[in-house]
Write a structure and sequence with these properties.
The chain is 18% helix and 38% strand. It has 237 residues and is an alpha+beta fold. A hairpin with a 2-residue loop joins β2 (16-25) and β3 (28-31). The N and C termini lie far apart (44 Å). It folds into two domains: 5-93, Elongation Factor Tu (Ef-tu), domain 3 (Beta Barrel); 98-236, Threonyl-tRNA Synthetase, Chain A, domain 2 (2-Layer Sandwich), CATH 3.30.980.10. It has a six-stranded antiparallel barrel. It has a four-stranded antiparallel sheet with strand order 9-10-15-14, with helices on one face. It is built from four helices and 15 strands. α2 (95-114) crosses α3 (142-154). The structure holds zinc ion. The site of zinc ion has 6 residues, from α2.
Length: 237
Protein backbone atom coordinates (compact mmCIF):
# COMPACT_ATOMS: atom_id res chain seq x y z
CA UNK A 1 0.00 0.00 0.00
CA UNK A 2 1.31 3.45 -0.89
CA UNK A 3 1.57 5.82 2.03
CA UNK A 4 2.11 9.51 1.38
CA UNK A 5 5.03 10.80 3.42
CA UNK A 6 3.62 13.49 5.70
CA UNK A 7 6.31 16.11 6.12
CA UNK A 8 4.06 18.13 8.46
CA UNK A 9 4.32 15.40 11.10
CA UNK A 10 8.03 16.09 11.56
CA UNK A 11 7.89 19.82 10.90
CA UNK A 12 4.56 21.68 10.77
CA UNK A 13 6.47 24.88 9.87
CA UNK A 14 7.64 23.64 6.45
CA UNK A 15 6.03 25.95 3.87
CA UNK A 16 7.33 24.25 0.71
CA UNK A 17 8.78 20.96 -0.47
CA UNK A 18 9.64 19.10 -3.66
CA UNK A 19 7.64 16.04 -4.66
CA UNK A 20 6.91 13.66 -7.52
CA UNK A 21 3.42 13.18 -8.96
CA UNK A 22 2.38 9.53 -8.43
CA UNK A 23 -1.19 9.62 -9.75
CA UNK A 24 -3.76 12.07 -11.11
CA UNK A 25 -7.48 11.33 -10.96
CA UNK A 26 -10.79 13.13 -10.57
CA UNK A 27 -10.41 12.67 -6.81
CA UNK A 28 -7.10 14.51 -6.68
CA UNK A 29 -3.35 14.55 -7.24
CA UNK A 30 -1.25 12.06 -5.34
CA UNK A 31 2.36 12.97 -4.50
CA UNK A 32 5.10 10.85 -2.92
CA UNK A 33 5.41 13.39 -0.10
CA UNK A 34 3.61 16.54 0.98
CA UNK A 35 3.48 19.39 3.48
CA UNK A 36 -0.31 19.71 3.01
CA UNK A 37 -2.38 18.54 5.98
CA UNK A 38 -5.31 16.38 4.85
CA UNK A 39 -8.69 17.26 6.36
CA UNK A 40 -9.13 15.16 9.52
CA UNK A 41 -9.69 15.39 13.25
CA UNK A 42 -11.85 18.46 12.71
CA UNK A 43 -8.99 20.44 11.12
CA UNK A 44 -9.56 21.79 7.61
CA UNK A 45 -7.37 20.55 4.74
CA UNK A 46 -4.66 22.85 3.41
CA UNK A 47 -4.74 24.93 0.25
CA UNK A 48 -1.56 25.24 -1.82
CA UNK A 49 0.09 25.77 -5.20
CA UNK A 50 2.02 23.15 -7.15
CA UNK A 51 4.67 24.65 -9.41
CA UNK A 52 5.79 22.48 -12.33
CA UNK A 53 9.35 22.54 -13.67
CA UNK A 54 8.32 24.67 -16.65
CA UNK A 55 6.78 27.25 -14.31
CA UNK A 56 3.12 26.36 -14.83
CA UNK A 57 1.09 26.26 -11.62
CA UNK A 58 -1.70 24.06 -10.28
CA UNK A 59 -4.02 25.52 -7.66
CA UNK A 60 -4.92 23.13 -4.84
CA UNK A 61 -8.30 23.97 -3.29
CA UNK A 62 -8.34 21.31 -0.55
CA UNK A 63 -6.37 18.35 0.78
CA UNK A 64 -8.12 15.12 1.79
CA UNK A 65 -7.37 11.49 2.56
CA UNK A 66 -8.11 8.74 0.04
CA UNK A 67 -10.50 6.06 1.30
CA UNK A 68 -7.52 3.99 2.50
CA UNK A 69 -6.54 6.86 4.88
CA UNK A 70 -2.93 6.22 3.77
CA UNK A 71 -2.74 8.29 0.60
CA UNK A 72 -3.22 12.05 0.61
CA UNK A 73 -5.07 13.64 -2.32
CA UNK A 74 -4.52 17.25 -3.39
CA UNK A 75 -7.83 18.44 -4.80
CA UNK A 76 -7.27 20.75 -7.79
CA UNK A 77 -9.31 23.94 -8.08
CA UNK A 78 -11.88 23.85 -10.86
CA UNK A 79 -10.38 24.78 -14.23
CA UNK A 80 -6.77 24.62 -13.06
CA UNK A 81 -4.16 22.84 -15.14
CA UNK A 82 -3.22 19.29 -14.08
CA UNK A 83 0.30 17.82 -13.80
CA UNK A 84 1.33 14.54 -15.44
CA UNK A 85 2.37 11.41 -13.57
CA UNK A 86 6.13 11.43 -12.96
CA UNK A 87 6.49 15.22 -13.06
CA UNK A 88 8.47 16.95 -10.30
CA UNK A 89 6.60 19.73 -8.53
CA UNK A 90 7.27 22.25 -5.80
CA UNK A 91 4.46 22.35 -3.24
CA UNK A 92 3.97 25.79 -1.69
CA UNK A 93 1.41 25.91 1.07
CA UNK A 94 -0.92 28.84 1.73
CA UNK A 95 1.10 29.49 4.86
CA UNK A 96 -0.89 32.30 6.44
CA UNK A 97 -4.05 30.19 6.29
CA UNK A 98 -2.27 27.08 7.66
CA UNK A 99 -0.69 29.10 10.48
CA UNK A 100 -4.14 30.35 11.51
CA UNK A 101 -5.33 26.71 11.57
CA UNK A 102 -2.32 25.75 13.72
CA UNK A 103 -2.98 28.64 16.12
CA UNK A 104 -6.70 27.85 16.49
CA UNK A 105 -6.08 24.10 16.71
CA UNK A 106 -3.61 24.61 19.57
CA UNK A 107 -6.10 26.98 21.17
CA UNK A 108 -8.71 24.18 21.26
CA UNK A 109 -6.30 22.08 23.36
CA UNK A 110 -6.21 24.95 25.88
CA UNK A 111 -10.00 25.35 25.78
CA UNK A 112 -10.46 21.60 26.30
CA UNK A 113 -8.28 21.76 29.40
CA UNK A 114 -10.59 24.38 30.94
CA UNK A 115 -13.69 22.18 30.59
CA UNK A 116 -12.75 18.71 31.86
CA UNK A 117 -15.62 16.67 30.37
CA UNK A 118 -15.72 14.36 27.31
CA UNK A 119 -15.37 16.04 23.92
CA UNK A 120 -17.82 14.91 21.22
CA UNK A 121 -16.36 16.80 18.27
CA UNK A 122 -14.50 19.83 17.02
CA UNK A 123 -13.99 21.90 13.91
CA UNK A 124 -11.13 24.20 12.94
CA UNK A 125 -11.33 26.65 10.03
CA UNK A 126 -8.94 29.56 9.38
CA UNK A 127 -11.27 32.07 11.03
CA UNK A 128 -12.88 30.23 13.90
CA UNK A 129 -12.86 27.00 15.82
CA UNK A 130 -15.48 25.10 17.78
CA UNK A 131 -15.43 22.29 20.28
CA UNK A 132 -18.44 20.28 21.45
CA UNK A 133 -18.63 19.07 25.03
CA UNK A 134 -20.79 16.36 26.55
CA UNK A 135 -22.17 18.69 29.17
CA UNK A 136 -25.83 18.61 30.25
CA UNK A 137 -25.77 21.61 32.59
CA UNK A 138 -23.88 24.64 31.47
CA UNK A 139 -22.35 27.11 33.85
CA UNK A 140 -19.91 28.19 31.13
CA UNK A 141 -19.37 31.91 30.77
CA UNK A 142 -17.92 33.52 27.63
CA UNK A 143 -16.06 36.31 29.45
CA UNK A 144 -14.57 33.96 32.05
CA UNK A 145 -13.45 31.43 29.42
CA UNK A 146 -11.96 34.21 27.27
CA UNK A 147 -9.95 35.49 30.22
CA UNK A 148 -8.75 32.00 31.21
CA UNK A 149 -7.82 31.12 27.62
CA UNK A 150 -5.79 34.28 27.08
CA UNK A 151 -3.96 33.71 30.37
CA UNK A 152 -2.95 30.23 29.16
CA UNK A 153 -1.86 31.68 25.80
CA UNK A 154 0.21 34.42 27.45
CA UNK A 155 1.87 31.83 29.73
CA UNK A 156 4.31 31.28 26.83
CA UNK A 157 4.38 27.47 27.21
CA UNK A 158 6.36 25.38 24.72
CA UNK A 159 4.40 22.49 23.20
CA UNK A 160 6.03 19.05 23.35
CA UNK A 161 5.45 16.28 20.80
CA UNK A 162 6.38 12.70 21.67
CA UNK A 163 5.61 9.32 20.09
CA UNK A 164 4.13 6.27 21.80
CA UNK A 165 3.01 2.88 20.52
CA UNK A 166 -0.69 1.93 20.14
CA UNK A 167 -0.14 -0.53 23.01
CA UNK A 168 1.12 2.24 25.28
CA UNK A 169 -1.91 4.33 24.38
CA UNK A 170 -4.26 1.41 25.07
CA UNK A 171 -2.74 1.23 28.57
CA UNK A 172 -3.62 4.90 29.19
CA UNK A 173 -7.21 5.28 27.94
CA UNK A 174 -7.62 8.40 30.08
CA UNK A 175 -5.44 10.27 27.58
CA UNK A 176 -8.15 10.13 24.90
CA UNK A 177 -10.42 13.17 25.29
CA UNK A 178 -12.60 12.74 22.21
CA UNK A 179 -15.33 10.10 22.26
CA UNK A 180 -14.92 7.59 19.43
CA UNK A 181 -11.60 9.01 18.22
CA UNK A 182 -9.28 6.26 17.05
CA UNK A 183 -5.97 6.45 15.19
CA UNK A 184 -5.94 5.15 11.60
CA UNK A 185 -5.57 1.37 11.35
CA UNK A 186 -2.02 0.13 10.94
CA UNK A 187 -0.53 3.13 12.75
CA UNK A 188 2.78 2.12 14.32
CA UNK A 189 3.31 5.24 16.41
CA UNK A 190 0.92 7.75 17.91
CA UNK A 191 1.75 11.39 18.46
CA UNK A 192 1.18 12.72 21.94
CA UNK A 193 0.77 16.47 22.10
CA UNK A 194 1.63 17.92 25.49
CA UNK A 195 1.19 21.45 26.70
CA UNK A 196 3.04 20.93 30.01
CA UNK A 197 0.84 21.48 33.03
CA UNK A 198 -2.24 22.07 30.84
CA UNK A 199 -3.09 19.24 28.44
CA UNK A 200 -1.73 15.93 27.15
CA UNK A 201 -3.50 13.85 24.50
CA UNK A 202 -2.99 11.93 21.26
CA UNK A 203 -3.47 14.23 18.26
CA UNK A 204 -2.52 14.07 14.59
CA UNK A 205 -3.16 17.74 13.82
CA UNK A 206 -0.70 20.59 13.35
CA UNK A 207 0.21 22.79 16.32
CA UNK A 208 2.26 25.91 16.98
CA UNK A 209 5.51 25.58 18.94
CA UNK A 210 4.52 27.89 21.78
CA UNK A 211 1.16 28.99 23.20
CA UNK A 212 2.10 32.68 22.83
CA UNK A 213 2.08 32.22 19.05
CA UNK A 214 -1.73 31.75 19.16
CA UNK A 215 -2.24 35.45 19.92
CA UNK A 216 -5.29 36.95 21.61
CA UNK A 217 -8.59 35.10 21.19
CA UNK A 218 -12.21 35.60 22.21
CA UNK A 219 -14.94 33.08 23.02
CA UNK A 220 -17.79 34.33 20.85
CA UNK A 221 -20.53 31.77 21.41
CA UNK A 222 -21.70 29.08 23.81
CA UNK A 223 -24.52 27.16 22.17
CA UNK A 224 -26.80 24.39 23.36
CA UNK A 225 -26.73 21.89 20.48
CA UNK A 226 -28.72 19.19 22.24
CA UNK A 227 -29.76 18.18 25.75
CA UNK A 228 -26.23 17.02 26.54
CA UNK A 229 -24.14 18.93 24.02
CA UNK A 230 -22.59 22.38 24.53
CA UNK A 231 -20.66 24.01 21.69
CA UNK A 232 -18.02 26.65 22.45
CA UNK A 233 -16.86 28.83 19.55
CA UNK A 234 -13.59 30.77 19.62
CA UNK A 235 -12.22 33.38 17.19
CA UNK A 236 -9.12 35.53 16.95
CA UNK A 237 -9.65 38.74 18.95
ZN1 LIG B 1 -4.12 18.78 18.36
Amino acid sequence: MTVTRKRFDDDPYLDHCSATVLAVSDAGIELDETICYARSGGQAGDTATLTLEDGRTVTIADTVYADDRARILHVPAEGTELPRVGERVTVTIDWERRHRLMRLHTCLHLLGSLIPVPVTGCGISPDSARIDFDLPESTLDKAVLTEQLNALIRANTAIRITLITPQELAAQPELVRTIGAAPPAGTSSIRIVEIPGVDRQPCGGTHVANTSEIGAVVVTKIEKKSRTNRRVVVNFA
